[in-house]
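Hey,

The postdoc asked me to send both predictions to you directly instead of through the lab channel. I've kept everything plain text so nothing gets mangled by the mail client. Protein one:
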Amino acid sequence: MIEHEAGDLTCTVEAQTPMVELQSALAGAGQMLALDPPGDERLTVGDVFDRGLFGPRAHRYGRPRDLILGIRARLPGGEEIRGGGKVVKNVAGYDLPKLFTGAEGRLGRLLELTLRLHPLPARTCTLVTATQDAMVFEPLAPACVDYRWAQERLLVRFEGPVADRLAEEALALTGGELVQQDEQLWDEQRRLQAGLHLHRCLPGDCPQRVAELRDAGATTVFGRLERGWLFADLPAPERELSPLEQRVIARFAA
């Protein structure tokens, strides 16, 4: 890391830093970058933000564009630019960090990133239940909510010092099974997500969209219902860029 402001829950890191090394360093201070995308020890911070990768924790903490505060980047012409800042509340001009996040290098190369951090949870606990109604758990603020259609099971993870109590309240609502040592369960979810394609829809349209994907030949489908994010072994249709997106990309790539 270039800089770690533990009191402000922010850090600045070089883009080529491996994610595992960053998370290990932050864990020593009781903090984390709340992103858990699928990948191995070669996955870098730059890869995650350049490609907009995310995992199950995005349900509560958001995707990469929600956790980036500032960038230093090199444009295709060789010029270096800076955007954003080093504090959480920072709004001025173009939001270049969010613009570069997920752009896959079309605007330039990320060199340095300033990121928002969160406390490392003291406890985790997961409810495995047969219900498909993810909304019933929202008042309990779960960290992760994934549905596996093949097994017809909803996985609901709670994090923090009262994770066990929240999981027991969730169990009383729907029944199921509590998993205390749940890291392997979520490692499997990330492994399952690797190589699949993201399909987005309205949360209420998830069951219909799953049926459409299966009719189209998908053999693996799972999703984060309350966000309308489905992962399947079929490519997602190419999204057309809006006129505004085309103008912005043309300006920075010129």
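Protein two:
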Amino acid sequence: MNSTEKPTAMLSEEHQSILKVINALIKECDALEQKKELDKDFFEKAIDFIRNFADKFHHAKEEDILFIELCKDEVQMHCNPIPQMLHEHDLGRNFVKGMEQGLNENNKAKVIENARGYIQLLQEHIDKEDNILYPMADEALNPEIQKTILEKFKQAEHKRFTEGTKEKYIALADEFEKRN
């Protein structure tokens, strides 16, 4: 099985779109700290991306498929990082809630605080997954199980997103990447 056919490669690729949005959040927080007005449209789009692409789409594949496979008794890993990954997903959801509350309250400081928390968490989280968890998964899961996981990923994509929705969010991440 070549690396592009691995479920972890698909997840790492999705991380690239998530990181584009993270980088846009960094720039926006920097601008807000330099007295820029709160750009509600930007943050609403960012929250929509995070909730739908990063969480419902990407994290769901990890939580509902990959992590379940990795926790099966027959899968041998020298440690189990899954509880920590799940905890970090929940922390991220709380930061997004805080960002949204700050936006609704027109509270720039609260938006910045929660966006910065989300940024730091996700940068570290993605690094852990790409460089620790996913290589462990590639080693622990045989090619047959990986093929099954890939099929489940594709089914989950079709179930969670209508035609063109994934592309819409990838285009939004690309648009964010081009922002000044």
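Summary for protein two, as requested: DSSP finds six helices and no strands in the chain.

Thanks,
C.
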